Amino acid sequence: MITPGYVRSMAAYNAEMNRRLYAAADRLTDAERQADRGAFWSSIHGTLCHLVWGDRIWMSRFAGWPKPPVGLRDSATMIEGWGALHAARIETDSSLTEWAATVDDTWLAGDLVWFSGGAQKELRRGRAFLLVHFFNHQTHHRGQVHALLTAAGQKTGDTDVMILVNGTE
Q1: How many domains does the chain fold into?
Q2: Buried b vs exposed e over 7-44: b needs ≥16 C-beta within 10 Å?
Q3: pTM of the model
């Protein structure tokens, strides 16, 4: 069962892993971050940009945040400069952590209805289930970035959730 504690723990894990990935990516040149490395979103920068986009599109549904200014197909190019992308990540993680602190059992028990651009139809799903997708999406693409950074000779340190958060948030 998804609980408010799970949401807070995963938000903390998300923020910590993003700090680690961005620190490793900071050690690369902009050209290295922008290089097409064969990933689904092309580059380290593109994949990290897509992650900001994904977090913001879901938070627009969960909490009324403004929708990103571009659609899914353009998500990898939504933010051009590294400094701007890094700042957007920090702000997104901070706001997501603040929001996670407000999630309660009543909110989790409800449904979310939204129009999915990807599916081109209105969908209804349980919020708790959608949060599993939300955090899984982050982990999936961060794993891709981790592999790209490792191939570029960078290290992030531990990535295991049970090492990075205590699970009692």
Answers
A1: 1
A2: bbbbbbbbbbbbebbbebbeebeeebbbbebebebbbb
A3: 0.93
